[in-house]
Amino acid sequence: MAHVSDLISEDIESYLAAHEQKELLRFITCGSVDDGKSTLIGRMLYESHMLFDDHLAALEADSKKVGTQEGEIDFALLVDGLAAEREQGITIDVAYRFFSTDKRKYIVADTPGHEEYTRNMATGASTADVAIILVDASQGVLTQTRRHSFIVSMVGVKRIILAVNKLDLVDYSEDVFNQIKADYHNFADEALTLEEITAIPISALKGDNIVGPSENTPWYDGQSIMQYLETVEVAADSQSRPFRMPVQWVNRPNREFRGFTGLIGSGCISKGDRIRVLPSGTESNVARIVTYDGDLELAGAGRSVTITLTDEIDISRGDIIASAESPCSSADQFQARILWMDDEAMAPGRQYLFKSNSQTTSMTLGSLKHKIDVNTLEELPAKSLDMNEIGVCNISLSSRVAFDSYDDDPVMGGFVIVNRMTNNTVGMGLIDYALRRADNIHWQSMDVTKQSRAEQKSQRPRLIWFTGLSGSGKSSIANILEKKLQSMGRHTITLDGDNIRHGLNRDLGFTKPDRVENIRRVAETSKLMVEAGLICISSFISPFANEREMARNLMQENEFVEVFVDTPLEVCEQRDVKGLYAKARAGGLPNFTGISSPYEAPVNPEVRIDTTSMTAEEAAEAIIDYLSRS
Amino acid sequence: MQDRMTHLQRLEAEAIHIMREVVAEAENPVMLYSIGKDSSVMLHIAMKAFYPAKPPFPIMHIDTMWKFSEMVEFRDKMAEDLGLDLIVHINPEGKEMGMNPFIHGSSTHTDVMKTQGLKQALDKYEFDVAFGGARRDEEKSRAKERIFSFRNENHNWDPKRQRPELWNVYNSRKNQGESIRVFPLSNWTELDIWQYIHLENIPIVPLYLAKPRPVVERDGVLILVDDDRLPLNEGEEPMMKTVRFRTLGCYPLTGAVESYADTLPEVIQEMLLTTTSERQGRVIDFDSTASMEKKKQEGYF
């Protein structure tokens, strides 16, 4: 198999001509260390003659040193990458392997199998055409088998090879194989949305049914793993869907040329086709499909092209060019499945960034409908998702995006979730369907406006947002500030823990999700106060930069004044007016800011109050001074 | 209706998509150009990605003063032929101290001229994203590196803090001081590179093809006598051998292989029939196990 064909030495030109026509197949292997996953991949690399002599020599040396096969070649060592992992003997990250045969080139995503690596598996599966699920024949279908299958099917893999491995340990028993196959179908036929399950009896260690048929399994007349991979048809999947191309970049080298570049996500497009641009809804016809190698008559999913249109219409990055016959729709509220990928738990109510092929926009995650136990597939009630947990919630975006549901079109229905502060990718989401809500709530246009209400009071409405540790002096300063403003004839209102926590927010506690929701409601209420033309003073610990940013984004420019009451923790703790620090130190108050929960200090507040060098009176003056200057 | 694509067409389309994403989202991108075969492929794809426009970023070569002279000629000619903006950076401190791999040793030379030189240049021009031609099949630690790979303000890579990379949606948002290395050829193998060069007729440095050249043999490695800076040991006589190079770098640190492959198909044929992996010609990888991973953590590309 593979490269070592006589053609190479006899007629390299014909060999190249043939090999330049190879197709590409991407697959993922799922299983735990004990299932023999690394051994299987190592075996495939070995059998396809992709190992160079120096690799082999290193492998033999490593096998003697740290191998688990008593001096025999330990194929698993081939695929264990980073030094730290090699020492621990586990695979902690997605690694990509490459090999090729005469017919195809393969990219293998090799991912770890433990529950705490669910996110790595989802990452590897997101680009895979096929998944190989490994089962240890002596163990049968286990919880982890179901978990792996659920994850890969959730992210869109439609074809699964059930590789029943270590058959040599059960004397190549047909009964064992059939039982495992039946058990798997019992589970998968109902729980998963798959096109195809192919069960293959193998021994990765001994090489049975990896490349060709094995003499040890005369009762099996199906394909070997490689035979399956060589012949499975996947290219048609994406090209048979309706045409979709997310616009990446507008190419305008001169006045005459205006091309829309992108990687075709789904379907095919021909010169002259009618297209619709989403979300705007404008239509036109394809004038040219431009590439460096000349214009194309037809281009399908997977090709990077530049499209020009017959009409001059306004299109920019993030728009979708879709078939006019079967276009996608657009919306700003969805139900989505979420897989959380960050150490810091998901915070419903918080603003994140939504990034998909079509758009980057602000997103608020709604409260969780339920989470899914990846082992039992049970739906459980939950308030938040920790790393590697999967759940369902509504999301709401700050602008409309073009979409299809993930099950109809993974290119159009998948998105990543980005934390606005850390910029980390904290989750992946799959759109189930759009909620109609946005269309139903029409903004009632008002004759009396914020402007006119403010004019009546002869003042500029503002939100003065106090943030700082408990006991930093926020309330004292806010109190003096409000009195001073009132004596100047200003109309004011103060929102603080006392009047909010006892009323509007009395259903909320102090866990992180609750604190996020607390601030979200406060921010929305503050906004209404500002709409009423008032100067609103909101005084809350508000420890998370994210939520303060969210409050700021609700306001118009220059309406939001962040006042950072900067009192060192030691000083607050010394004062301890309410005795809370003592209680927190004694362990009686979980999630207490500064002690058992972080405070993220503002980087650029409008006003910073250093209470160690200023009295409350002076602080209030400083704020008034800022208000009159800005 | 179907549009069948070969694996090379799919890899090319993926690389184009990655380059366009960078141009759409980066503030000030640059393409690192090492003059080698992978760089040649990357540059060729960049010409395709933005056609009919030119690539909207400069290309930059981190020169070490010890590159093969044919590489430097080739570099200047390519930039001129393609009409691209070429930046050449040499670490001025290294230049001043007369950095010499024969005197200072290969690891100091590589660190000062390549690793430090690269950091300097990226800081000097304030590039926030740099394209590199590295491939995941080159070496074990690369196999796990993301296509968008983040570096902290000291240009260090932290393999434990890599962001998940889902589908082809790349999160290019960076924190203060961070920069990004982007590897459009991540999913290519050495064979893919050669096949693509063959198929697309991409110009490469002639050093890749066999020809009689003056060399000396040291510790089993054939070193080209590229200029008169190569100090000859006692009794050492340059000899003419028909050789070529499988990788290109600094000439004192790059071993030649004896070969008669003077056409591209013959080179590919030889590659398929010989069974030592590509980086063996590079002296730096011999240092210690996991040495590439270490270098990358320190800021080597």
Explain what the structure shows:
The complex is a heterodimer of chains A (630) and B (301). Chain A is α/β, with parallel strands linked by helices and 630 residues long. Chain A has four domains: 4-231, Rossmann fold (3-Layer(aba) Sandwich); 238-323, Beta Barrel (Elongation Factor Tu (Ef-tu), domain 3), CATH 2.40.30; 329-436, Beta Barrel (Elongation Factor Tu (Ef-tu), domain 3), CATH 2.40.30.10; 450-629, Rossmann fold, CATH 3.40.50.300. In chain A, the strands form five sheets. Chain A has a seven-stranded antiparallel β-sheet with strand order 7-15-11-12-14-9-8, with no helix packed on it. Chain A has a six-stranded mixed β-sheet with strand order 2-3-1-4-5-6, with helices on both faces. Chain A has a six-stranded antiparallel barrel with strand order 16-20-18-17-21-22. In chain A, helix 14 packs across helix 20 (616-629) and helix 16 runs parallel beside helix 17. The termini of chain A are far apart. In chain B, strand 7 and strand 8 form a beta hairpin. Chain B is built from nine helices and ten strands. Chain B is globular.
Topology:
The complex is a heterodimer of chains A (630) and B (301).
Chain A: H1 6-10, H2 12-19, E1 23-30, H3 37-47, H4 53-66, H5 83-88, E2 95-100, E3 104-110, H6 118-125, E4 130-136, H7 143-154, E5 159-165, H8 174-191, E6 196-201, H9 225-231, H10 235-239, E7 244-246, E8 249-251, E9 259-263, E10 268-270, E11 274-278, E12 283-290, E13 298-300, E14 304-309, E15 320-323, E16 329-340, E17 351-356, E18 360-372, E19 379-380, E20 390-403, H11 410-413, E21 414-418, E22 425-434, H12 437-440, H13 450-456, E23 462-467, H14 474-487, E24 492-496, H15 497-501, H16 512-531, E25 535-539, H17 545-554, E26 560-566, H18 569-575, H19 580-585, E27 607-610, H20 616-629
Chain B: H1 7-25, E1 29-32, H2 37-49, E2 59-63, H3 69-82, E3 86-90, H4 92-96, H5 101-104, H6 106-125, E4 129-131, E5 148-151, E6 179-182, H7 190-200, E7 211-218, E8 221-224, E9 239-244, E10 257-258, H8 264-273, H9 291-298
Parallel strand pairs in B: 1-2, 1-4, 2-3, 4-6
Antiparallel strand pairs in B: 5-6, 7-8, 7-9, 9-10
